[in-house]
Design goal:
binds cytidine-5'-diphosphate; Rossmann fold; five-stranded parallel beta sheet; globular; single chain; 8 strands; alpha/beta; 51% helix; 9 helices; three-stranded antiparallel beta sheet; 221 residues
């Protein structure tokens, strides 16, 4: 059976990763959370006390960083950092780090290598526009800011991180602003992406919609 590439982009906390993970599981595809990669880079820079505004310093530290995956867990230089990449410090710095071209070049290169064999579901901000412009299926997810903040608060609580709705909402809006306005590969909907507004639908409905679209593409030709 034909194996395709599925690119899922959109604003922060729309449920992209939860959806992508389950779509991949149902299709027997690999799931890659590209946001986790940018978060891991940010974590490393913070751990090394690098000023993320200092482009020269950031570039110097980039070659110390090796990102890997073990199932859906993210590894930073061999260590599982699933929990550490979700902290407030990372949330507050990740969009600045992600706007740096040298960081993007390194991540996009690795993402394209992972996607070479097809059979992949990757979520992020520039997957359908820059990483896999030829992806067979591109989804652009949206949801109201209130719903996104509520969902993120619940997700963080499950990971033992207690943050107020106001603080979460502020961070989501700020990241959306930086992500949408950066010069290098800003967050925009690819022309051929299908938009799904998840404000009033459940996670299961989101997954089913994308699975139906994926099956159509797989059975084409
Ligand atoms: O989970 P959430 O939607 O909050 O964010 P994420 O997918 O974990 O991404 C964290 C940050 O990484 C985003 O706010 C972007 O700044 C950056 N990112 C990016 O620039 N390009 C991607 N392909 C994925 C994430």
């Amino acid at each position: 059976m034909k194996r395709i590439v599925i690119a899922i982009d959109g604003y922060s906390a729309c449920g992209k990763s939860s959806t992508a993970k389950q779509v991949a599981a149902k299709l027997g595809y690999t799931f890659i959370d590209s946001g986790a990669m940018y978060r891991a880079v940010t974590l490393h820079l913070l751990n090394q006390h690098v000023n993320v505004e200092d482009l020269v310093k950031v570039e110097e530290h980039l070659n110390e960083i090796e990102i890997g995956f073990e199932g859906s867990s993210i590894l930073l230089n061999g260590n599982n950092v699933d929990t550490e990449i979700r902290t407030r410090a990372v949330n507050e710095n990740v969009s600045a780090v992600s706007a740096i071209s040298a960081v993007r070049r390194k991540m996009v290169h690795q993402q394209q290598l992972i996607g070479r064999g097809k059979g992949i579901v990757m979520d992020g901000r520039d997957i359908g526009t820059v990483v896999f412009p030829d992806a067979e299926l591109k989804i652009f997810m949206t949801a109201s800011i209130e719903v996104r903040a509520e969902r993120r608060q619940k997700e963080l609580l499950e990971k033992g991180i207690d943050e107020s709705i106001e603080s979460i909402m502020g961070n989501l809006l700020e990241r959306d602003r930086i992500d949408s306005n950066r010069a290098d590969s800003p967050l925009i909907k690819a022309e051929d992406a299908i938009e799904i507004d998840t404000t009033n639908i459940t996670l299961e409905q989101q997954i089913d919609q994308i699975l139906d679209l994926a099956k159509e593409k797989i059975n084409e030709n």
